[in-house]
Amino acid sequence: MRLEALTILAAAALSAAPPLHEAELVFPLEKWHNHSSSIVEQPNGDLFLCWFHGSGERQADDVKIEGARWIQSKRAWSDRFTLADSPGFPDTNGTVFIDNRQRLWLFWPVILANQWETALMKYKRSSDYQFESGAPKWEWSDNILMIPKRMHERTQELLEKDLGPNPIGQRAARLIALSADKYFSRLGWFTRTHPITLPSGRILVPMYSDGYSFGIMGISDDNGETWFSSEPIVGYGGIQPSVVRRKDGTLVAYLRDNGPPPKRIQMSVSSDEGISWSKTTDTELFNPGASVEALALRDGRWIMVYNDLERDRHSLAVSMSDDEGKTWKWKRHLERDATPMGRYHYPSVMQARDGSIHVSYSYHRNMDGQEGKAIKHARINTEWIEQGGR
Q1: Domain ranges of the chain
Q2: Phi, psi of 72 (to 5 degrees)
Q3: Among candidates 86, 93, 259, which has minimal Cα distance to 167?
Q4: Minimal CA–CA distance to 122: which of 145, 96, 149, 138?
Q5: How many C-alpha atoms does 220 have within 13 Å on its Cβ side?
């Protein structure tokens, strides 16, 4: 049978799949802080997950990166294990990535002085990680040192027209002045969402700065041997970029909105493989100041996982687009409380080889009168999303 016919039959079988939604906690709710997960599928079909764990975030020096695997043959999550722990410093916001050589990468920031602006980016790499228990055998580790390209020039170009006596004008003046500070501009960039590999082989590691509320890309053109920086993604409050690629090669970064109301998911575009980016603009999608992640599915549709509110994080939605983000025709909720009973946030999303979509997210809910915290994993498909309509 010809390859084209097989492809058509496979697509037809996939489109006939029944709606799928399965979900479970990776471990029981606990009083420890567990947050900001990232999930990938290993070449053997098992899942690899990381998150940060400790008594707090940037101001708690016991924070470390933990991991677990979904073992397909056992239909269960493994015991937890430590992936990174810098003694005396918080390790936060880890993200995992499998490159074209099937190597596993862990990117994460060490917070040097208990403020996000003092983040130092680090990474580890492994070719030996597909076993049922314990951490990968790391073969290399290093820092990613950022020298943002055209930091001051680009900030001035995009914000100087906003200068004036009003609050936005004052903020523009502060950001323009701060962008000329070599020390401040080279420190404090760190990860949240998945890296992406472009058809050219270029790897983009999305990062952001809480000091500027800008995004940026760490870039490698040699399979991660060396890294350099893009120009900043400039705007007011746009952080934690998640990158998808249009069929024409344009890159779209969707960003959390840490700026003034109205609170919307922001976006920026790049036409040169992530080197330069447009000033951020608002989309139609609500955002309460919480992380989002977008993904281009193999059938050409895009999905976005986000908190579809302007305040609070008690509703976590999946929206889907069939026109590369121009409109979002379908939406369904992974979690939704009628009143704020919990917080379901910081999603990580990926598509497995069987076509299913996997989402991990922070699951924070009342436990014996206190907030219990865990990481939750959901497995869904596009048919399930379509059932929800709007």
Answers
A1: 1-30+290-390
A2: -60, -40
A3: 259
A4: 145
A5: 16
CA distance 65 to 101: 24
Angle at 47 between CA 42 and CA 49, to 5 degrees: 110
Query: What per-residue confidence (pLDDT) applies to 150?
Result: 98
Contact 101, 121 (CB under 8 A): no
Neighbours of 329 (CB within 10 A): 15
Residue 318, amino acid: V
- pLDDT beyond 50 at 6: no
Among residues 249, 251, 244, 172, which one has the least CA distance to residue 214? Answer: 172
Q: Which two tokens stand for residue 41?
A: 């599928």
Q: Say if residue 226's pLDDT is above 90.
A: yes
The pLDDT of residue 15 is: 54
Mean pLDDT of the chain: 95
Residue 189's Cβ-count burial label (10 Å; 0-12, 13-18, 19+) is buried
Question: What number does CATH give the domain 1-30+290-390?
Answer: 2.120.10.10
pLDDT at residue 1 in the model: 43
Task: Identify the band that residue 103 occupies on the pLDDT scale cut at 50, 70 and 90.
Answer: very high
Distances, alpha carbon 359 to alpha carbons 245, 246, 261, 305, 364, in Å: 20, 22, 28, 8, 16
Q: Is the pLDDT of residue 29 over 80?
A: yes
3-state secondary structure of 36: strand
